[in-house]
């Protein structure tokens, strides 16, 4: 095994394990656009406030994309989804 392979292999394993775990949950993403809107999240998390949502929406576009969902899930702010 080359030196480069040794460096890259663990990263590939981590990526492969992480990617499916944070696929958007169709039960939340009701319109299937791949993002969670505030109404979509509030429907499954009635305690979610608009302030909570704004805090998670780091890009400020009013939608949580996969990166924002991943951060929020890892922080324990959103339920982990496993399909
Ligand atoms: Ca959506």
Record keyword descriptors for this entry:
single chain, 83 residues, mainly alpha, Recoverin, domain 1, two-stranded antiparallel ribbon, 5% strand, binds calcium ion
Briefly, what is this?
By secondary structure, the protein is mainly alpha-helical. The chain contains four helices and two strands; from the N terminus they run H-E-H-H-E-H.
What features would you describe in this structure?
This protein is mainly α and 83 residues long. The protein has a domain at 24-78: Recoverin, domain 1 (Orthogonal Bundle). It is built from 4 helices and 2 strands, in the order αβααβα. The protein has a two-stranded antiparallel ribbon. The termini are far apart. Residues 29, 31, 33, 35-37, 40 line the site of calcium ion.
Topology of this structure?
Blueprint: H1 3-21, E1 36-37, H2 38-44, H3 50-56, E2 63-64, H4 66-74
Antiparallel strand pairs: 1-2
Bound molecules: calcium ion.
Calcium ion binds near residues 29 and 40.
Largest sheet: 2 strands, antiparallel
Q: Determine the mean pLDDT.
A: 81
Strand order of the largest sheet: 1-2
**Structural class of the secondary elements?**
mainly alpha
The second-level CATH architecture of the domain at 24-78 is Orthogonal Bundle
The shape, in one word, is: elongated
Bound molecules: calcium ion
For this structure, the CATH topology of the domain at 24-78 is: Recoverin, domain 1
Unreliably modeled segments: 16-22
């Amino acid at each position: 095994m080359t030196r480069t392979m040794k460096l890259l292999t663990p990263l590939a394993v981590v990526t492969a394990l992480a990617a499916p775990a944070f696929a958007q949950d169709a039960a939340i993403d009701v319109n299937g656009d791949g993002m969670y809107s505030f109404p979509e999240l509030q429907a499954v998390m009635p305690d979610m406030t608009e302030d909570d949502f704004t805090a998670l929406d780091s890009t400020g576009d009013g939608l949580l994309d996969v990166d924002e969902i991943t951060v929020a899930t890892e922080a324990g702010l959103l339920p982990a989804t496993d399909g």
